[in-house]
Amino acid sequence: MDPSDAPPLHIVCAACRMENVLECPPPNFIPRCANCRRNLPVDAPGVTREITAAEFEQEVMNCPRPVVIDFFSSREGGLRTIFEMVALEMVGRAKFVRISSKDNPDLAGRYMSGHCPQMVVFKGGRLVGRRTGEQSESSLRAFARAHCVL
Ligand SMILES: [Zn+2]
């Protein structure tokens, strides 16, 4: 699918509450609020969010963009911050979602191989990449970019 067909993301600025609409930005673009010029929040809905098994079909299998999934266990690590930073850099080109392996054992059993934390990438409803274990920022960025070139 042509990336220009991907739906734009709507991110609300945490400072001035203005809604920013982001369409396919260039690589390494850091989204800033069009109104107050502050950086948009990395944890804004639409940049990364946690999804459940009930949403998997719609959010992952039917997504026109590549989807990077962070399968996580209950332990919160530095990986979440890194994941959100890389997600922000790739706004409009890939979707980043988080799935609790503990709360969604069926999804974890079907799509995970080995233990958490684990990143997988889906494209057009097919699993095309996997990375297991803690990641540095540069390795997660390289992994996401390698699988999300549009
Ligand atoms: Zn603002």
What would you say this structure looks like, in words?
- The chain has 150 residues and is α/β, with parallel strands linked by helices.
- The chain has one domain: Glutaredoxin, CATH 3.40.30.10.
- It is 25% helix and 24% strand.
- The chain has a five-stranded mixed β-sheet with strand order 3-5-4-6-7, with helices on both faces.
- α2 crosses α4.
- It starts with 8 loop residues before the first strand and ends with a helix.
- The mean pLDDT is 82.
- Zinc ion binds next to loops.
- The site of zinc ion (ZN) has 8 residues, from loops.
Structural topology:
Elements: E1 9-12, E2 19-22, E3 48-50, H1 53-61, E4 67-72, H2 79-89, E5 95-100, H3 105-111, E6 118-123, E7 126-132, H4 137-147
Parallel strand pairs: 3-5, 4-5
Antiparallel strand pairs: 1-2, 4-6, 6-7
The protein binds zinc ion.
SSE series: EEEHEHEHEEH
Helix content: 25-40%
What structural class do the secondary elements suggest?
Answer: alpha/beta
Strand fraction band? 15-25%
Q: Which characteristics define this entry?
A:
about 150 residues; five-stranded mixed sheet; two-stranded antiparallel sheet; globular; binds zinc ion
Briefly characterize the structure:
Helices cover 25% and strands 24% of the residues. The protein has four helices and seven strands; from the N terminus they run βββαβαβαββα. The relative contact order is 0.17.
